[in-house]
């Protein structure tokens, strides 16, 4: 296990936290060792999800307008765009293991809603949620053991490293999901409201998955969900972390990526096939999600 110091944290002046991981496999494990003097980390946020495992010591974890006393064996979850920081008591040492990953690694836009349910604990903390539980006690050290295995896999870098890491991540998410629904939290005095958002959105997600190549309106989706357009927008954002329009675009671009690699269709043909008729617009959207043009993407992943 390689422990990093406080100085290795990359936080921009605007508070955005940066972690380097490959675009095609957005997962990273960082282990931090804070000691020698008390500190309060700069409040920061990030667009990926974070799992914190407290390896040693204790700290106060501030998330949004709430705070949690965390100590050895606790597991905390941080969602995307949530302002958070840790605060250490005087003359203490604090070591934590952090798993950073993008939601797309678990469930891509237009993917299986069952996979999306793994992310429920991360998204059920929004402004419209009564749930405040985000810290759990890993008393049997199950999550610690998995993180240590993941760290070894990253060091080994064998042929099936990514597949193994993804399986381990799902193992951790399943444990967290059981903690979430079982109410196994280190913070007392809170009523746990089980999130039924995924259940309410199943038909909507399924419709997008099967019709991404057609024009899809918010009104259509709201009728499928038996909700008003405004209510659907709020629920969809809370559960998936993105808007309906952005989710549909991601579903189209994910299918386009598959066709770029697996088919001989031209880029224009692929754009039409995934429901985007404007070739220039397709190129701009593709770059926004992948940081490269469709042409460069095809060259890169068909030559490997």
Describe this structure in words.
The protein has helices at residues 113-116, 120-123, 142-156, 161-182, 197-211, 218-225, 229-240, 244-262, 267-273, 279-290, 294-302; strands at residues 3-4, 10-11, 17-18, 27-34, 49-56, 58-63, 66-71, 74-78, 84-87, 94-101, 135-137. By secondary structure, it is an alpha+beta fold. The strands form three sheets. It has a six-stranded mixed β-sheet, with helices on one face. The longest helix is centred in the middle third of the chain and has 22 residues, at 161-182. Residues 126-131 and 187-195 have low confidence and may be disordered.
Main β sheet profile: 6 strands, mixed
C-alpha Rg, in Å?
21 Å
- SSE pattern, N- to C-terminal: EEEEEEEEEEHHEHHHHHHHHH
Question: Which structural class should the secondary elements be placed in?
Answer: alpha+beta
Low-pLDDT runs = 126-131, 187-195
Overall strand count: 11
Overall outline: globular
User: Within the largest sheet, what's the order of strands?
Assistant: 1-4-10-5-8-11
User: What oligomeric assembly is this protein in?
Assistant: single chain
Mean pLDDT: 82
Output the number of helix runs: 11
- Classify the helix fraction into a percent range: 40-55%
First-residue to last-residue Cα separation: 31 Å
Q: How much strand content do the residues show?
A: 15-25%
